[in-house]
Amino acid sequence: MAIPILEVSNLVCWGKNIALKSPLSFVLEAGDIGVVISQNLSSSANLLRTVVGIQNSRRNSISIGAHINTSPAAKYLLGAVPNEPEFYEELTVWEQLAINAELYNVDKHYRPYAIYEALEITQIAQYRDMQIAKISDLSLRKRVSIAGALVHSPRLLVIEDLFRGSDFRNWQKIVDILNQIRNTGKAILLSSESLLNLDTLYSQLFVVAENEVLVHGLYPQVVQEIGQYNLVQLQVWDTGIDEAIICLSGASDVFDVLQKEDDPGVLRFFFKGDSGKLQNLVSALKAKNIPIVSCLAVDNFFGR
Fold it and tell me: Which residues have C-beta within 8 Å of that of residue 9, sequence separation ≥ 6?
């Protein structure tokens, strides 16, 4: 029986000692893509950073190719792409990837081939001699980071905030790149701010809140489960915002209530139930004299 590329068993804690409501276990095999979505990217980052060993967890077993994720052997099987990649800005793309190859002790005779292959897969070969400081496009910088994570031929690629800075024109290109990577036999675990454009790509889906995984399952069975949820945006007059947060946080079908930083009168939360059930929730809030301006489901969060 083949050894899984990634195996997570009984994960009970992530982030800064945030205890999960229920343990999480899953496996990624060659060619699998696990997609983690959350309305708060710090929540999805907790899972990804725990997998790569940046954040610790209690009483769990995480292995990459049968090696404990914090071991040196596991690090050579892992390629990590952080939310905000760091580069030597004065270097060219090729020079940056050469440093990555050296850090992972890629054979000197093989390095040019490994770098060229990474550039081809990420569709940035035409930028090989461009100084990184001159690359302002966030999507392109993300692809440079992905290329850098591929030069040592890892078995598992972990990507934070996949579409950060990407517009519609780049989404399909990034999806094509992911398919090329999976076809080389690697497994991928990534986070995204929504399921848009990824709804036919993933092998496993995770919908996460601050301290729980609301949905986890294999495609296509998980499609029915996510159909029970919506990401809801509720706008409330300032005088009722505190009371609204208290009421929503105590509701059994409401999860992960967050207040928008740029608009404190807007609350976003996951809701489990149909439109009729949501209307009942709104009516209950109004009955408590909470001044509601509007309530709507956020389009495309679940790719529908």
Answer: 25, 60, 61, 62
